[in-house]
Design brief:
Elements (H helix, E strand, L loop, with lengths): L1 H10 L22 E5 L2 E4 H17 L3 H6 L4 H22 L5 H13 L5 H12 L6 H17 L7 H18 L1 E3 L6 E2 L4 E2 L10 H4 L7
Antiparallel strand pairs: 1-2, 1-3, 4-5
Helix pairs in contact: 1-6, 2-4, 4-7, 4-8, 5-7, 7-8
Length: 218
């Protein structure tokens, strides 16, 4: 239970994925070499493939390799969705004057690791199973978690509460609308209702119940 709770808490970094309010333009104009474009930031196909390969390599080395690889058919689409969402959060954080230091990320990592009695391998396995995040991406995930928490605090709410989630979603919707999102049709189209690419409905796309879970430091 502790292992599952920690992994789902980490997944709260992708909190905005649950919101239908994050508006964007479907596939949009052509951008050579881009998997997606968020504002003036291009997410290249090579960047996406590198991220996907890292997850697949980690899955192949996992004791649960057969189960994990059988569930990774939509990994490219899921990964691109998360990369797009991360760009939106970065912009919202910058606009709000929110910053996250390396020291804060390392502190959160260390505190989460304590729930696994310091066993880094078990911790990484739990994150991989629950959130499809490779070990090399865990600290980026924590950084986004901290950005989300601080954004909610900047709006005057307790991080993780329902009211904080609603306020954050509204703020991110405004940011997303100002940026604009264009997705390479190869990977699908931006689904305004689901705020994901295509029909992605995997566990790391946080639902209202999961987004209320406390952060890994709790």
């Amino acid at each position: 239970m502790v292992r599952r709770r920690t992994a789902v808490s980490i997944a709260a970094a992708a909190l905005l994925a649950a919101s239908p309010a994050l508006t964007a333009c479907g596939s949009g104009p052509a951008h050579p070499g881009a998997a997606a474009v968020v504002g003036d930031q291009k997410i290249t196909v090579s960047t996406l493939q590198h991220q996907v390969n890292q997850v697949r390599d980690a899955q192949a080395k996992s004791p649960q390799a057969a189960q994990l690889t059988s569930q990774s058919g939509k990994l490219s689409r899921q990964t691109l969705t998360m990369l797009v969402q991360s760009e939106v959060i970065d912009k919202a954080a910058a606009d709000a004057g929110v910053t996250v230091s390396d020291a804060e990320v390392q502190q959160m990592h260390a505190q989460a690791l304590q729930q696994f009695q310091g066993d880094e391998a078990q911790f990484e396995q739990a994150v991989l199973e629950q959130a499809q995040v490779a070990p090399s991406g865990i600290d980026d995930y924590f950084r986004t978690t901290l950005q989300v928490n601080k954004l909610e605090q900047s709006l005057g709410y307790q991080p993780g509460s329902d009211t904080a989630t609603e306020a954050l979603v509204a703020a991110l919707a405004k940011t997303s609308k100002s940026l604009g999102v264009h997705v390479n049709p190869r990977y699908g189209t931006w689904d305004v209702k689901q705020a994901v690419i295509g029909d992605t409905k995997e566990p790391w796309v946080v639902t209202k119940s999961a987004s209320a879970v406390a952060d890994p430091t709790a």
